[in-house]
Specification:
Elements (H helix, E strand, L loop, with lengths): L1 H12 L1 H37 L2 E6 L5 H12 L4 E7 L1 H11 L4 H6 L8 E6 L5 H9 L4 E6 H44 L1 H9 L4 H42 L9 H28 L4
Antiparallel strand pairs: 1-3, 1-4, 2-3
Helix pairs in contact: 1-9, 2-7, 2-9, 2-10, 7-10, 9-10
């Protein structure tokens, strides 16, 4: 196709300008990919906690076993509890040792007396967490109550904040991408102004004149998108072992290849739209 050959000729003649356009598109879609990974991961984390509603009540050191047993029995009588597990100080120490067995210094600093005993309470519905938490807080034997809704609310706040920041960042980068591609393509169009005038005198349509530049914009978008997605995916795979250790059993990773390729396909569509928009705007002023 002649338009494709013309576009490739334009790119070869100005490699540094082409590289600048590709790099800015790469940065834009690198940001989009990272943003997509964060939103996807946080949604999985929220669903994980919602599927396992749990309240943990930590007892004061002076709490007696009869008090704990009475509290446990009163909670079970509500009909909202799916399971209750008592964790003694000795069991809490063993859990701590298992979690920190790779760091002997931390093991030496903690003894059984330091760690509180606790009740781990699961409810059938996440809506019941607040009521159970309030009941636990009224007990004089309880020093602190932690429940999944706190975790979910915190994650939701952070997710919304990241989403807003990500959208603003992506919008800015997308605009910068359009302006840079308009500048690059506009410079090339200005160099061919006389050639365009001759083509118009020969009755060439605006679409025929515009097409090579549109293809060039699409090329910048697709190449930049691919490398942005590739670098983001490579970074995710590199960080996967560290993130799995941090997430401790939450089934976020590894990310499905289907999700990655669906993301790439979506980004390519966006890149094509940006490329067409930038190149069309750049050529438009010379076709009036």
């Amino acid at each position: 196709m002649k338009a494709v050959k013309t576009s490739m000729k334009h790119i070869r003649r100005t490699p540094y300008q082409a590289l600048a356009a590709i790099c800015i598109m790469m940065l834009t879609f690198l940001a989009i990919s990272v943003f997509a990974f964060i939103v996807f991961g946080s949604s999985v984390v929220i669903k994980y906690f919602e599927s396992k509603p749990q309240v943990t009540a930590f007892f004061k050191d002076e709490a007696q076993q009869p008090e704990i047993d009475a509290l446990k029995q009163s909670l079970q009588q509500t009909g909202k509890i799916s399971s209750v597990r008592f964790v003694s100080k000795a069991q809490a120490l063993q859990i701590y040792k298992n979690q920190n067995k790779s760091d002997p210094l931390l093991l030496d600093l903690v003894t059984e007396d330091i760690l509180p005993s606790s009740l781990e309470i699961s409810t059938y519905k996440i809506e019941d967490l607040n009521a159970i938490s309030n009941t636990l807080k009224t007990s004089p034997a309880v020093s602190e109550v932690v429940y999944q809704k706190d975790v979910i609310d915190t994650i939701s706040v952070w997710t919304n904040a990241v989403r807003i920041i990500g959208i603003v960042l992506i919008a800015v980068l997308a605009l910068v991408s359009i302006f840079i591609m308009m500048t690059v393509i506009g410079f090339k169009v200005s160099q061919k102004r006389d050639e365009i005038e001759i083509m118009k005198l020969l009755s060439a349509t605006n679409w025929y004149i515009r097409l090579p530049f549109v293809i060039e914009g699409i090329f910048y978008g697709i190449v930049g998108t691919f490398f942005g997605w590739l670098f983001a995916s490579a970074g995710l795979f590199y960080a996967t072992p560290y993130l799995e250790s941090f997430l401790k059993g939450i089934p976020v990773l590894p990310v499905s290849p289907l999700f990655l390729f669906a993301l790439l396909f979506s980004e390519i569509i966006i890149a094509v739209i940006l490329g067409i928009l930038a190149s069309s705007l750049a050529v438009r002023r010379y076709l009036r």
